[in-house]
Each structure stands twice: as structure tokens, then as C-alpha cells.
Amino acid sequence: MGRLIKIFDTTLRDGEQSPGCSMNLQEKIQMAKQLEILKVDVIEAGFAIASPGDFAAVKEIAKSIKNCTVASLARTLPKDITCAWEAIQYAAQPRIHTFIATSDIHMKYKLKLKPDEVIESAISAVKLAKQYCADVEFSAEDATRSNPAFLYKIIKAVIDVGATVINIPDTVGYSTPDEIYSLIYGISQNVSNIHKAEISVHCHNDLGLAVANSLAAVKGGATQIECTINGIGERAGNAALEEIVMGIHTRKDIYSVDCNVETKQILRTSKLLSTITGIQVQPNKAIVGANAFAHESGIHQHGVMEERSTYEIMSPETIGLSQNKMVLGKHSGRHAFHERLKMLGFDVSKEELDRAFLRFKELADKKKEVDNRDIEAIMTKDFVEARKVYTLKNFVINSGNKMTAMATVKLAHHGKESEKVATGDGPVDAVFRAIEQIIGKKIILQDYSLHAVTEGKDAQGEAIVKIKGDQRIYTGRGLSTDVIEASIHAYVEALNKMVDDTPI
Ligand SMILES: CC(=O)SCCNC(=O)CCNC(=O)[C@H](O)C(C)(C)COP(=O)(O)OP(=O)(O)OC[C@H]1O[C@@H](n2cnc3c(N)ncnc32)[C@H](O)[C@@H]1OP(=O)(O)O
Ligand SMILES: CC(C)C(=O)C(=O)O
Fold this sequence. Notes:
Blueprint: E1 3-4, E2 6-9, H1 25-38, E3 42-46, H2 52-64, E4 69-75, H3 78-88, E5 93-101, H4 104-111, H5 115-132, E6 136-141, H6 148-160, E7 165-170, H7 177-190, E8 198-203, H8 210-220, E9 224-227, H9 241-250, H10 252-255, E10 257-258, H11 266-277, E11 294-295, H12 298-306, E12 325-326, H13 334-343, H14 350-366, H15 372-383, E13 390-398, E14 405-413, E15 416-424, H16 427-439, E16 444-452, E17 461-468, E18 473-480, H17 483-500
Parallel strand pairs: 1-10, 2-3, 2-9, 3-4, 4-5, 5-6, 6-7, 7-8, 8-9, 11-12
Antiparallel strand pairs: 13-14, 14-15, 16-17, 17-18
């Protein structure tokens, strides 16, 4: 087991600061309980003085969480610290988290305080917090844009009065991995009493470096990482908990550290947050995105089917996903298609596989994702197909709400092609009439139906046509993402059966 890194989750505080991510009391409690199941070390439940709602949420979470430290944020103002304590005093392991900005730009323009006044304010805040609570975290807001010598000074001062955790925030996501590594390492070497406190990092993602910076800080000596589920947070968000935890887990060879998080709860926690906030993660989001364990390309699918580690660096089960996903689409190959057929119970010969694969590729060219229902439809159609006496060459439709529908259809028949134009009561009627003219015979349409095989704009339509022959009814089935094309295929198939006299 390597050095233990504590995971400080701030989904309910900094995460909630993202526009659109506000949660009500019940939702916060539900989320906090899930974070406890996930086994984070610290839950920052809110900023108690921010509002009566925030105060109530911090208080209720403090009361209901038993196995994690529960923290409330507080400015260095006495009223904030007292309020934070009033909310978290019920926690099994309470922590007051106080902060003040240390960069020249924040001190001058925002706080309008001299550096010495900032140090004084920080010392008084930690002293007051210590009167309430043994565990006091101090954050030097905008630390990565602060003068390191000033940082060393304020850190030493707050540890002297009892701060137990020193947090180094990259408040505006400005740092880079090399830089934050040096900053943390510098603190560990230049603050004489640093051994009395833990070093923490809190990285924002403005340059997309929050996770990389957090991991670099661990290399530099940090033992606590502040992060949020799905990386939610101010502006571009905070470091994503799931990426940090799986980074540590997957690259033990580099980081040689461990954390207490129950990785199998990662996906459930991510989904709960999305459900509560209504904000879904993008499909290509690392670890928890819908595509994070999905493979569409034939070469990858084949590799994964032979040996998962060819294209997967983590197993889906580790994050609580039952299995990876083989998406069948236009980039998929025969191996994955055959595997899916077997899974669906189709035992096919080489020829049948070749034929079905051809049809699958035709469909995949038109449709983004071919799912099991599409395949069932392809296979059902494939095995009941009649001899192709007539085949569709092409068709054109001219239709609208203020005109009579007109169709031009061209069919091939015994090596010859014939084309007819017909009008009808709608485009389907017009194509059926054109076909009737081509074969030169009156066809009695017994039934016609159309339904979508799958959902979405690019769903396949399945048309079923029943026509009446002299003795029997002949059924044809047509599939296409174009419903008129599906209808023609169904009609022509029924015709072929009639000509072939293959009853269904
Ligand atoms: C980097 C971070 O994420 S910090 C946390 C940010 N989160 C939030 O701000 C969310 C919750 N915030 C709030 O609800 C409100 O801002 C409150 C309740 C905290 C304060 O509200 P208001 O009293 O109306 O002040 P307002 O937000 O407009 O301005 C902030 C004040 O705090 C001061 N301040 C800012 N940081 C600190 C600090 N760490 N310590 C002491 N004072 C601070 C500012 O100088 C300003 O003071 P002023 O009112 O004397 O000019
Ligand atoms: C208050 C601190 C920890 C913070 O959220 C930040 O600097 O981003």
C-alpha cells in the first residue's frame, strides 16, 4: 500500500457554485449519503453563511453523515466562522474550512487589504475556529498566482495557531503541472512547521489541467485532493473526482499512492448527480461518459474480444459498470457483428453471415448506431426472403400538402428495367400504383402498416405489406431509414412471393 491520499469532495459547495447545479436540501442529503458510500474522506457540505438554505443543508448533512469529515467553508470573518461551527457542530468529525486570498491582485483589488492585514485576518480566523473545532483547514485563495515567499509566511503563521490542513487552490485554473509540482514541493521544503499539517490542493479546470495539476501536486507532496463529481464547479469546473481516483488507481506505477474511495460506486455517484442537477456528462467524458467503455471500430472490437487490455486500460467493473459496450455502427467489423448474432441466438453459416453483414453495413451507412432490434429485423428479413423476381432500381417522389403525390418507380425484372409514373392518395399510394403499372396487373392491397424499429430521427422504419393473390395472402417486409423505400421493398417482396407462389 502506498501513501494514503485523502479525497475531499466539494461537489456540494464548489460544485454547487456552477450555474444550473443548485440542489435543494433533500437532494444535498441524498448526494452526501452517496458520497459517504463512495468513501470520500471529507465532504464539504456548503458555505454555511451563504444562505439559510445552505446553513440547513450543512447542518443536516453534519447530523446524518457518520463516516466522513464534514466541512463548511467560511471567510476569515468571525461571523462566518461562528456560523460554520453552528452548522457543523453535530458532525462526527467536523472541520471548519476558512480561506482568504493571498495573491497581490486579489488582496489589492478585491479585499483592499495589505499583505500584513491578510496575515492578521487569517491568524485570527484560525484562532477563532480552533476554539470551536480541532480540525481547521486554511486555504490561501489564488495561491498559484501568489508570491511564494508570502505564501510560506502565511502558511507558517496559520500552522503556528493550529491549522491542521493547508490548502493550495489554483483558484482560476492558471497553473500547469510542472509549476504546481514546484509550488507544493517548495512549500514542503520552505515552511519550517509544515510537518504539523497536511498539504492539500484544489484545482480548477480553466485550461483543462485540473486533474493533471492535482496529480502533479501529489507528486510534489500533497496528501489531500479537493475535487468534485463529474468535475462540476465554478466556470470550467473543478478537478473531477472520478478521474483523479482512477488516475491514482490505474497508474500506481507512477504515483505509488492509494485512496479510500470505493471505485465501484463511481458510476452510481456520477449518475445520481446528473439526475439531481439535470446536467449530463458529455459522452466522451473520461471514466463516466457513455463512450468511456464503448468500442465501435472493428479493429478495436476485434482486439478487445481477443484480449480486453488491447484497448482498455481499466476494467468497466472497477467503476461499477457491468460490462463494456460494443457499439455496432459503420466502423464495425465482421468479428463483432458475428459475436452479436451469436449473443442474439442466431447460429449462422459463413454464407449467411456474409449476406447479413452486407445488409448490416448498408444499414449502418444510413444509421448512426445499429442496435439489437435492427439486427433482429435484418435477420428475420434475411431468412424469409423470396426469390428476387422484381428488384427496386430507384424511385422519385414528388409530394406536398397542396398537391397530388406523384411517384416515379423503376424496377428490374429478368434483366430488363421498366419505369412508370403514377399519382396517388399520398406518396405510398403513388408508388404502389406505379409498381402495379410496371407489372401490368391489378394488385389487391390487403393491409399496410409502418412502424419504427428503434427510436430517434435515424430510426429504421419497418413496413409490412399484405397483398391478396388468387388463393392466398402474401406478406412482404421492408426495412429502411426512409419509410417510402421501406414501403416499396415490402410491396416488392410481397409481389415476389406471389410470383414465386411462396405462401407465408
Ligand atoms: C474561490 C471561491 O470559491 S470562494 C467561495 C465563493 N462562493 C461564494 O461566494 C458563494 C456564497 N457567497 C455568498 O452567498 C455571498 O457572497 C456571501 C454571503 C458570502 C457574502 O455576501 P455579501 O456580504 O453580500 O458580500 P459580497 O459577496 O457582495 O462580497 C464579498 C465580501 O466578502 C469579502 N471577502 C471575500 N473573501 C473574503 C475572505 N476570504 N475573508 C474575508 N472577507 C472576504 C469581500 O472583500 C467583500 O467584502 P465587502 O462586502 O466588505 O466589500
Ligand atoms: C475557497 C477555495 C478553496 C476555493 O474554492 C478556490 O480557491 O477555488
